[in-house]
TrEMBL record:
Keyword Signal: yes
Domain Leucine-rich repeat-containing N-terminal plant-type per the UniProt entry, residue ranges: 28-65
Keyword annotations of the record: Cell membrane, Glycoprotein, Leucine-rich repeat, Membrane, Phosphoprotein, Repeat, Signal, Transmembrane, Transmembrane helix
Protein name: Leucine-rich repeat-containing N-terminal plant-type domain-containing protein
Highest taxon, organism lineage: Eukaryota
Membrane topology, from the record: Single-pass membrane protein
Residues making up the signal peptide according to the UniProt record: 1-22
């Protein structure tokens, strides 16, 4: 019945060619278009308000009629955010040559009745939510030149019906849920110039027949497909190819040498595969090549000397491979080079000192290699450099002063090197600077003054250096802000102007020589912070009792100061607190029972203070199910340790596998950066810093108090306990046999 209906409709279209039927044709077309409107359920911009029976449909929005016959030849409703289904009555527009409804929210099936539109040249249904399988009847559209279904929800095997459309120039089936294989029939087109099947669920090998598409200019087959094997050598037959993209699709093997025949190729994009072998020298024969991306593969060897012939190259991305050797000097002489990414390889030697001399460099990533020597002074020669990343190398010498004048610079990452000297004087006056990451170097001198009343800066990390002097009185940090000056030699007091940086997410001033008290406004500001670390200084006075109600603060570290008084009871307002470290101070208080309702708590360190009394105050049913580290050592706690708490400490009883599967983490994500969680544990009198602690390790330290009674046998249920210290108490009785169950234990002190 459906076939008969389609044949009948096709016959009607053929009959309507007769000029005497033109009046009937107009009526039929208007009715069909009104049916299309009726199938639309939402028109947020009232784009179809002109579509009514009282006006000529040739004047309606999106309609183009033939100037003499007044028959509809084009329907373009793109970019109108229309919702609804596509009416099958479109099939009555028998002279329609273009149908475009892209960038809307149409759903449902593609009507098979569209197959009767024999004049159709362009069918663009991209960026909608069409679903179901592709109608095989559309193979009747023999004159179709453009078929675009990009970004829909189509399913089923990659449709063979499209291979029966001999005049296709542009075929885009990308970003759907098509499965199956690219079969040999997809190599039949004589005129195809654009072919996209990326972002589907395709498998199997790439057929050698792909090399028959000799007019092809753009080929996109990657992203989330899972092919078998590599790139067929027949790819070299595509002499007109300008752009080839096959990223993240499980390609293996080497790049075929036949690729040298693609003399018009401008873009070769093959990242995130399993390609291997040395970089083929034939790539250097691609005289038109502008962008080469082979990142996230397994390429080995050195950068071939033939790459010196790539005079049109603007981008070279070789990130995360296994390449080695020196960075060739000719890289600095590529005249059009704008982006160079050689990060996470094994390159050694010095950075070519002329790099950037072409005046066009915008992106430079040499991170995680074995590079030595100094930084080139020409990197921002053209004042176009935006992102600079040389972290995790062995670079020495100062940061070039020229970077302090690089107004285009937005991100600078140079951490974990051996850089010395002072920070460039004008660095923090750069108008576009957003991220400065310089940790773990040997930088010295004083912190340069913020020379502007406003900056774009979001992230500043100069931790683990030798910078001294007072903290800057003016700090301009944009949301979400990350500010770390940890492990330097800053002195003086904490400036109250820090409280004006109300968008800070992370504040780490730890391990400096800061003195004075903690500003009350800083504690009040903790309502927006995720991390506040003031540990390892010489701060005195009390901890202000002004913590606001918040669900942001996750880490609070005040360890290693000279703080006194009571622990502020307003801490119970920090509902998402994960790490609380108040150890090694002069706090005089009883056990903080008011923290019992903070069920996110993983680490509680109160060691080496003057806490006193018993700890018989917790509720066994609701107390600290995620607790992994409890350190109460070197205080004045007394009495029996209440074993009823143990049943609620579920994290301590988990297996290593269970802890990993429960989403344990050694960091938090703050300001789009990882903030590494580190905790100091004291084992046999030695303070040891554990950086990746919170993934699987637990610890219990009750030493140097006055706990008495039997050692609780329930401790034997703590399956991943790493360290147990009960020394210097008044425990009596036997050592419980259950301690033999602590298979992960590495430190035991009784």
């Amino acid at each position: 019945m459906k076939v008969q209906s389609l044949l009948s409709l096709l016959l009607q279209c053929l009959l309507h060619v007769h000029p005497t039927l033109s009046g009937e044709y107009l009526l039929s077309e208007k009715s069909a278009l009104l049916s299309v409107k009726a199938s639309i359920t939402d028109d947020p911009f009232s784009a179809l308000s002109t579509w009514n029976a009282s006006t000529s449909h040739c004047n309606w929005t999106g309609i183009t009629c033939h100037p003499s016959s007044r028959r509809v030849i084009a329907l373009d409703l793109s970019n109108l955010l229309l919702s609804g289904t596509l009416s099958s009555d479109l099939a009555h527009l028998c002279f329609l040559s273009k149908l475009s409804i892209s960038f809307n929210q149409f759903s449902g099936a593609i009507p098979a009745e569209l197959s009767s539109l024999s004049a159709l040249r362009v069918l663009d249904l991209s960026y909608n939510s069409f679903n179901g399988t592709f109608p095989s009847q559309l193979s009747l559209l023999k004159n179709l030149q453009v078929l675009d279904l990009y970004d829909n929800r189509m399913i089923g095997d990659l449709p063979l019906a499209v291979t029966q459309m001999p005049n296709l120039r542009h075929l885009n089936l990308g970003y759907n849920y098509f499965s199956g294989r690219i079969t040999f029939q997809f190599g039949q087109w004589k005129f195809l110039e654009y072919f996209d099947v990326s972002n589907n669920n395709l498998e199997g090998p790439i057929p050698q027949e792909i090399g028959n598409l000799t007019n092809l200019r753009e080929l996109y087959i990657g992203q989330h497909n899972e092919y078998e094997g590599g790139i067929p050598s027949e790819i070299g037959n595509l002499s007109e190819l300008v752009r080839f993209e096959a990223s993240y699709c499980n390609l293996s093997g080497e790049i075929p040498p036949e690729i040298r025949r693609l003399q018009k190729l401008e873009t070769l994009f093959l990242p995130e595969n399993a390609l291997s072998g040395p970089l083929t020298v034939e790539l250097g024969n691609l005289a038109s090549l502008k962008s080469l991306d082979l990142s996230y593969n397994n390429f080995t060897g050195k950068i071939p000397a033939s790459f010196a012939e790539l005079k049109n190259l603007t981008g070279l991305q070789l990130f995360q491979n296994k390449l080695h050797g020196a960075i060739p000097e000719f890289i600095a002489d590529v005249p059009e080079l704008e982006a160079l990414d050689l990060g996470e390889n094994n390159f050694s030697g010095i950075i070519p000192q002329r790099l950037g001399r072409n005046g066009k460099l915008q992106f430079l990533d040499l991170s995680s290699n074995n590079l030595t020597g100094t930084l080139p002074s020409y990197m921002c020669f053209g004042n176009r450099l935006e992102i600079l990343n040389t972290e995790e190398n062995s670079l020495v010498g100062p940061i070039p002063d020229s970077l302090g004048r690089c107004e285009s610079l937005s991100q600078i990452h140079m951490g974990r090197n051996f850089l010395n000297g002072s920070l460039p004087r004008d660095l923090f006056g750069l108008p576009n600077l957003t991220d400065v990451m310089l940790p773990n170097n040997r930088l010295a001198g004083k912190f340069p003054i913020f020379s502007r009343n406003y900056s774009q800066l979001r992230t500043l990390d100069i931790s683990d250096n030798n910078i001294h002097g007072e903290l800057p009185s003016r700090i301009w940090i944009q949301p979400p802000g990350f500010f770390s000056v940890s492990r330097n030699k800053f002195d003086g007091t904490i400036p109250t102007s820090l409280c004006n940086a109300t968008f800070l997410d992370v504040l780490d001033l730890s391990h400096n020589h800061l003195t004075g008290t903690i500003p009350q406004c800083l504690i009040e500001m903790s309502g927006v912070l995720s991390v506040m670390n003031l540990g390892g200084n010489n701060l005195t006075g009390i901890i202000p009792n002004s913590f606001p109600f918040n669900y942001d603060l996750q880490i609070l570290v005040l360890n290693g100061n000279q703080l006194e008084g009571e622990l502020p009871k307003s801490l119970d307002r920090c509902n998402d607190l994960m790490v609380l470290d108040i150890g090694n101070n002069l706090i005089q208080d009883t056990f903080p029972c008011y923290l019992k309702n903070i069920d996110t708590l993983k680490v509680l360190i109160l060691r080496s203070n003057q806490f006193r009394g018993s700890i018989n105050c917790l509720d066994a049913n609701t107390t600290w199910s995620k607790l992994q580290i409890l350190d109460l050592a070197s205080n004045h706690f007394v009495g029996k340790f209440p074993i009823r708490y143990f049943s609620s400490w579920k994290a301590m009883m988990a297996t290593k596998k269970e802890m990993e599967s429960n989403g344990g983490s050694d960091h938090i994500v703050a300001s789009n950066y990882y903030y590494q969680i580190s905790v100091n544990l004291t084992l046999k009198g030695q303070d040891l810093e554990f950086v990746k602690l919170l993934l699987t390790i637990t610890s219990l330290d009750l030493s140097c108090n006055s706990f008495d009674g039997d050692i609780p046998k329930e401790i034997g249920e703590f399956k991943v306990l790493y360290a147990l210290n009960l020394s210097h108490n008044a425990f009596t009785g036997q050592i419980p046999k259950a301690l033999g169950n602590l298979r992960a234990l590495e430190s035991l002190d009784l």
